[in-house]
Amino acid sequence: MAYDTLQKSRILITILSSTGVLTNEKLHHRNLPKMSPIYYKLMLHIPLTFTFTLLMWLDVLFSSDLNQATDILYMVLTETALVVKILSVWYHDALVKSLFNEWQQNEMFKLQTTQESVMWQRTFKLYGIVAFVYIAGSLSVVCSSFTAVLFLNVYRLPYSYWTPFNWKHPLKYWYAYCYEFIAMPLTCICNCTLDMFHCYMMQHLALYFKLIAMRLENLGTNKDETNAGVTQKLLRIIEFHLKLKSMSKSCEAVVSFPILAQILLSAFVLCFSLYRLQNINFIDDPVTFFSLIQYAVVMNLQIFLPCYYANELTIESSRLVNGIYNCNWQEMSPYNRKIVFMYMQYLQKPVVLKAGNFFNVGLPIYAKVMNNAYSFFALLLNMDVE
What we know:
mainly alpha
């Protein structure tokens, strides 16, 4: 079937290439013919993403009390996780390209039946809805934050950061505001799009494992097929599976440290955002109050989505055992039954992605992060009371 399996990834790749996260020579040569993609990345992220994150950390270090520090800690930790993600994808740029080139060019990854195409379209239609809601929700948080401060009677930045000058001066305030107005939307787009790009890679692999399970179940059902034909199909499926396991290792290399940084920092991010939320009076500042609620929801999704898609990859790879057991192995030749039995033994161990070789990524780790966030939040409240 002539169906573009990478269709849903092209928008993400275009956004990430335009924002200097991924390298796309065609896009850069068309839009910036005299600039190298490497220089484009550095020119965009050094003065904005990296410097902005550093200035936020300086503001935390120069804070006079805990309340002032927690007002910005939830955001600076999110920005720090983004820096780790960007550096990781820059380091694995060639590996990402090789994965997507393989998916696009290798005939092994072409869909074979209408049933496979329908399943693929249905799954990625849902993925597209999730990606749109997550990215739109993230951008809405930024928009509401920048809008809220304009209606206050005092000068206040949407997200506090250190400046070498007093930004509370009427004229200098707009310098600080405009710099953040450029830096924050850029980092927000990079962050949420990169999250969905990692999730896309895991969903893509999970669907291929699901295709293998479907093909295994249909093995030997054609009465007119010879034993040699069944053997050939089975060997092709085994070769396909081995290729996917190798690609899963490559995917783990790309997403491992970004997910590790996200999970390690997320409990603190949720904790500090909730702490700031309980210190805000809804009547005095309703826009900021709703903005923080939006942020907490988006942050929850930022933790949940990679855990969910990594869990889906593990589940789909574990279902291969059921797929081969449900095939028509009873009527196969002794030689084919022997291959089926040995392959079934090999399938006992599913694919599990690890975060920096420390722990498995899945829904259980999401529950632990939520529990840790609540524990840190309760600790902060106790310290505040004392």
